[in-house]
Specification:
One of its GO terms (biological process) is Mo-molybdopterin cofactor biosynthetic process. Pathway: Cofactor biosynthesis; molybdopterin biosynthesis. It comes from Desulfosporosinus fructosivorans. Strand 7 and strand 8 form a beta hairpin. The chain has helices spanning 41-47, 65-76, 105-112, 146-155, 179-182, 190-199, 215-227, 247-253, 287-290, 295-304, 311-315, and strands spanning 2-5, 13-14, 18-22, 26-31, 52-56, 62-64, 81-83, 90-95, 99-103, 117-121, 126-128, 133-139, 143-145, 162-166, 171-177, 204-211, 232-236, 257-261, 272-276, 279-284. The protein is built from eleven helices and 20 strands. It has a six-stranded mixed sheet with strand order 16-15-17-20-19-18, with helices on both faces. The protein folds into three domains: 2-56, Molybdopterin biosynthesis moea protein, domain 2 (Alpha-Beta Complex); 62-165, Aldehyde Oxidoreductase, domain 3; 171-318, Molybdenum Cofactor Biosythetic Enzyme, Chain A (3-Layer(aba) Sandwich). Bound molecules: ligand LQZAQKY5 and molybdate ion. Ligand LQZAQKY5 binds at residues 176, 178, 180-181, 186, 188-191, 236-242, 245, 269-270, 285-287, 289.
């Protein structure tokens, strides 16, 4: 901290707020801590009775918090991210389009291990919409060492830490299994739930096929949807342990590569993920029809950004994989399936 004459203060950084009072009119900070004094501020400071002020001496190897916050956000923010103006050393990162919030967790930890900076993000792999705040980046002191910024810039040279992966609008086919639905004994309630949810992400359901619990017919339906150009096939029902639950067997017999049958998520334990060449198949258990938020919600962002799901990705969902059935569901702003 240094005391200098106001006339010599241009380009220096204020150490504290300066309060202006006009009786009967205003009282509040006319100048903010951390503010860089410009030429036009000098008369105003003199009018406020300040002939000397305390300033930070910004040394050659130090950077002002606002400039530093800009540099950090440019280093850490990648695809699909815009930046707000810095304010008190903080920049917010905003989603440019609808997609999946994608955080490089290892890099995030490495950056947050460096002193004097804070990077706080949303949970990883969550759906976000255009305009959502994805992260806040703050420099803690008024000035920060240049070498700390360079460390971050070096770490993020080849990898993006924070980005939004865009959703692709996929062509979706639904196969509704269940002899009770096929025969007309009960009305199909599963198809509409699944259709509404996947279409809310911008996909198009081009066809729904209703079949009985029959391996040959379910397999044939998978092949016919694929032949018609389906990029994502959703099967409903028949996923459990009864003798009539033949959907997993049908997916296997259709020749698909099975990634998992079962997921450590409740509701959603009986999920199947499979690939028939480049077509994703999700076998959705009965709970997806009944519960508002399930394993289906956790899978959708991954599928729509084109990530190939593997067994380890599914296994990781166990931590936080228990839906708490809150009275008012706030998904995706909750811990469900976040690994927390
Ligand atoms: N012993 C065990 N039993 C169950 C397990 C388990 O691990 N061990 N898992 C449970 C879980 S978790 C779920 S979820 C369900 C899975 O159910 P399914 O996918 O096999 O569903 P279905 O048996 O086909 O049907 C259940 C129920 O829902 C009705 N349904 C199905 N499709 C439709 C439709 N399109 N429209 C209207 N209603 C539909 C169906 O008639 C049944 O009443 O299994 C647990 N059991
Ligand atoms: O697959 Mo069931 O999913 O947990 O209710």
């Amino acid at each position: 901290m240094q005391t200098i004459r106001v006339e010599d203060a241009v380009g220096t950084v204020l150490c504290h707020d300066l309060t202006k009072i006009v009786p009967g009119k205003t009282k509040g900070p006319a100048f903010k801590k951390g503010q860089v004094i410009t030429e036009k501020d000098i008369p105003e400071l003199l009018n406020m009775g300040k002939s000397h002020i305390y300033v930070w001496e910004v040394k050659k190897d130090q950077v002002h918090e606002d400039d530093a916050a800009i540099r950090l956000s440019r280093a850490l923010g990648g695809q699909g991210i815009s930046f707000t103006e810095p304010k008190e050393g903080k920049v917010s990162l905003i989603a440019d389009f609808n997609g999946m919030c994608t955080i490089n967790e290892d890099l995030l930890v490495q950056v947050n291990m460096i002193e004097d900076m804070v990077v706080a993000t949303r949970s990883n792999r969550r759906p976000v919409i255009k305009g959502d705040i994805i992260a806040g980046i703050r420099v803690v002191p008024l000035v920060i060492d240049e070498n700390k910024l360079q460390m971050v810039e070096h770490l993020s040279k080849e990898q993006e830490t924070i980005r939004v992966k865009p959703f692709h609008s996929l062509k979706v086919g639904i196969i509704t299994t269940g002899s009770e639905v096929y025969s007309g004994r009960i009305e199909d309630k599963f198809g509409p739930v699944v259709k509404e949810k996947i279409e809310s992400y911008g996909c198009e359901v081009f066809k729904q096929i209703i079949v009985p619990d029959d391996v040959e017919q379910i397999s044939a339906a998978i092949h016919s949807l694929k032949a018609e150009g389906a990029e994502l096939i959703l099967t409903t029902g028949g996923m459990s342990v009864d003798p009539d639950d033949v959907t997993p067997r049908s997916v296997r017999e259709a020749g698909a590569e099975i990634v998992t049958y079962g997921a450590p998520v409740l509701p959603g334990a009986m999920l199947m993920v499979a690939y028939l060449e480049d077509v994703t198949i999700l076998g959705l258990p009965g709970c997806v029809m009944y519960h508002k938020t399930t394993i289906f919600d956790l899978m959708i962002p991954l599928v729509l950004v084109g990530e190939r799901i593997d067994k380890a990705m599914v296994a990781k969902l166990g931590l936080g994989g228990l839906c708490l059935n809150c009275k008012v569901c706030s998904y995706p702003v909750c811990t469900f399936g976040t690994g927390a």
